[in-house]
Amino acid sequence: MAIEITHITKSFRETRALRDVSLTLEGGHIYGLLGNNGAGKSTLLNIITDRVRADGGTVRIDGTENRSDEALSKVFLVGEQNFFPEDMRVKKALRTVASFYPDFDMALAERTAELFGLNLKQKITSLSTGYGSIFRIVLGLAVNTPYLFFDEPVLGLDAQHRELFYRLVLEKYAEHPCAVVLSTHLIAEAANLIDYAFIIRSGAILRQGPTEELMEGAYTVSGPAAAMEQYLSGRHVLSETALGGLKTACVQGQPDPLPDGLEIGGMNLQDYFISLMKEEDRK
Amino acid sequence: MAIEITHITKSFRETRALRDVSLTLEGGHIYGLLGNNGAGKSTLLNIITDRVRADGGTVRIDGTENRSDEALSKVFLVGEQNFFPEDMRVKKALRTVASFYPDFDMALAERTAELFGLNLKQKITSLSTGYGSIFRIVLGLAVNTPYLFFDEPVLGLDAQHRELFYRLVLEKYAEHPCAVVLSTHLIAEAANLIDYAFIIRSGAILRQGPTEELMEGAYTVSGPAAAMEQYLSGRHVLSETALGGLKTACVQGQPDPLPDGLEIGGMNLQDYFISLMKEEDRK
After folding, report:
1. Is the pLDDT of residue B244 over 80?
2. Same domain flag for A160 and A72
3. Chain A residue closest to B161 (CA)?
4. Where is the ABC transporter domain positioned along the sequence (chains A, B) (predicted)?
5. What is the ipTM, given to two decimal places?
6. 20 to 30 Å CA-CA from A5: which of A144, B58, B149, B266?
7. B196 and B277, same structural domain?
8. pLDDT digit string, tens, across residues B203-216
9. What is the CATH number of the domain that holds A184?
10. What is the total count of domains within chain B?
11. Nearest-angstrom CA–CA distance, B16 and A69
12. Which of B73, B71, B34 is nearest to B181 (CA)?
C-alpha cells in the first residue's frame, strides 16, 4: 500500500515546474515537503490528487493510476484554494465534503471547529486568511483518507492555533496511522512532527531521507571571525553569517575537536534547509 | 522623541477592539507586538498611523497629535493592505511612495528587490501572497522614517526569504536606529530581533517589558507524568502538555532543585506567549 510517483514532468508555458520527480509515500509516516516559493511543491500535490495533469510520468495509488474515483477516494488535499460556491456556509461545506468521503467524521469536524473557534454559520468567502486555513484544517482532520496532504496549512494562524494544529495532527496520526504530507515554510515547527523529508528545488528532489539522517552529516560552529576563517578553510561550508566580529557557519561533515574559542551548536532542520538553499544559490 | 499612545479605545459594531490602551514607543528599540488573531494588533497600528480613527484617546508623535502631515511623515506602516491602483507596476509604486517620503532610498529599494527576486515590472495585483509581502518589505526598508511598523511582514515567505528579511531589518536598524515595531505570529523567529514586547489580548495590553525580563520569572520542566503531578502541585502552572507517559509544563516562578527524573528546559518567547494565552483562556 503506497503512492508511487514515477518520472513526473510538468511545464507551465516556459517554466519547467517539475523535472522527472519520482518518490514513494507509505502509511505510517509524517512527511515534510520542503522547498522555497516556486520550487514546485503545490504543483506536485495538485498532480498527485489529479487537480492538475502532468505532462509525463505516472502516479499510482495502491497500485491503481490516479484517474479512477476509487484511487482518488484515498487521497485528500488541504490546499490553498477553495472550490465552494460563493455564498456557501462552513456547515454546508462540511456536509458537501462528507458526502464524497464515506469515512468523514462529522462529530470530529464539529469538535475541531469549536476548538479553533470557527463559526459553522459563517460564509466561507468571508473568512479571514487565518480562519480560511482553519476551515481547511478542519476538513483535513475529519476526512479519514489513507493519504492526507496539507499545503501551507498554517498560513495566517497565530502561535496558539499553530500549536493546536500540530497537536491534533499527532493525535489523529496516533489513532489512524495514515500517510501525512506537510508542505510548509515553517520548517522549524514542523520538524517536531515530520520523520522523513523531501527537499525540492527548481522542480527536482534535491535531498530526501529520514530527517535525522539528513542532518547527521552537518553541524554549526561559531566564534571570532579570524579564528573561524582559519577553521573553515578547506572544509565544506554550507553557509556563513557574520554579525559584528562573530561568525557562525553550517558545515557539512563530522565535527572534530575544535580550537579554543570556537563553539559547536545544534543544527535544526530549518537551518539545514536554508544552508542547502544558499549552497545551491552559489552553484 | 517618542510616540505616546494614551487611553485609546475603539469599537467596531458590538466588538470592543481596543480597551484603554496606553503605551510609549522610542527610537533605539525593536518592539514586538504579539497577540492572537483578533487581539487588536492591526487596529492599533492603523490608529497610530491615522488610517483608522480611535473612538477615544490620543496618539502624539514627537509631541504633535497624529493628524498633521508633519507628524504622519514620521511613521510608515507596512500593512496587509495595498492602496495602489489595480494596474500599477512595482517600479511605479516605489516612485509614488518615494514622492511622499523625502528620505526614501530608491537605490536601496532596488537592491532589496533584487535580493528577494522581486520583478520591478510586475503588476502589484498579480503578485503572489509571498511576493506581496516582499513588495511591502522593500517599501518599509527604504522609507527611512523614524518610526517603522511591520504588520505580519513575513506572511507567505519561505524560510530563506524570512531569514533575509530579519537580516535586513537588523542591518537597517544598526545604521539607522529608529523605532521598529514587528507585529507577527512567528514569535520564535522574531524573538532573535525584538528587545521589548507588548503582549495584547482582547484589546488590552496584558504584559509588556524587555523580553528577557518577561521570561525571567518562568521556566519549563518535563518528566514522567506521576512525578510531574507531584512536583506541580501547589505551583503556578501556566500550561501543560502530555505525550504518552511524559508531561511538560511551563511554570511561573524561580526553579528550585528538582527531584530526580525531572528536567528543566529553556523557555522561549513563543512558548511563554502560548502559555500565557492558555492561562488566560482558563480564566
Report:
1. no
2. yes
3. A36
4. 3-227
5. 0.84
6. A144
7. no
8. 999 999 999 888 88
9. 3.40.50.300
10. 2
11. 49
12. B34
Asked if residue A208 and residue A76 are part of one domain, the reply reads yes
Q: What is the mean pLDDT of residues B248-256?
A: 85
Is residue B92 located within the same domain as residue B110? yes
Smallest CA-to-CA distance from A263 within A275, A254, A255, A252 is with A255
Q: Are residues A155 and A268 in the same domain?
A: no
Residues A161, A264, single domain; the answer is no
Q: Does A222 touch chain B (CB under 8 A)?
A: no
What is the domain extent for residue A48? Answer: 2-213
**B242 close to A (CB below 8 A):** no
Residue A198 neighbours by CB distance under 10 Å? 22
Which residue type occupies A201? R
pLDDT higher than threshold 80 for residue A266: no
Residue A125: what residue type? T
Q: How far is CA B165 from CA A21, A46, B112, B155, B190, in A?
A: 31, 30, 10, 12, 11
pLDDT class of A107 with cuts at 50, 70, 90: very high
Boundary residue ending a domain (A182, A213, A244): A213
Q: Which residues are CB-contacts of A192 (< 8 A; sequence separation ≥ 6)?
A: A166
Rounded to whole angstroms, the Cα distance separating B149 from B66 reads 15
Please check whether residue B241 touches A, CB under 8 A.
Answer: yes
- Tell me the three cell numbers of residue A139: 476538513
Residue that terminates a domain, selected from B211, B234, B250: B211
Q: Write out the H or E segment, with its range, that includes residue A77.
A: strand A75-78
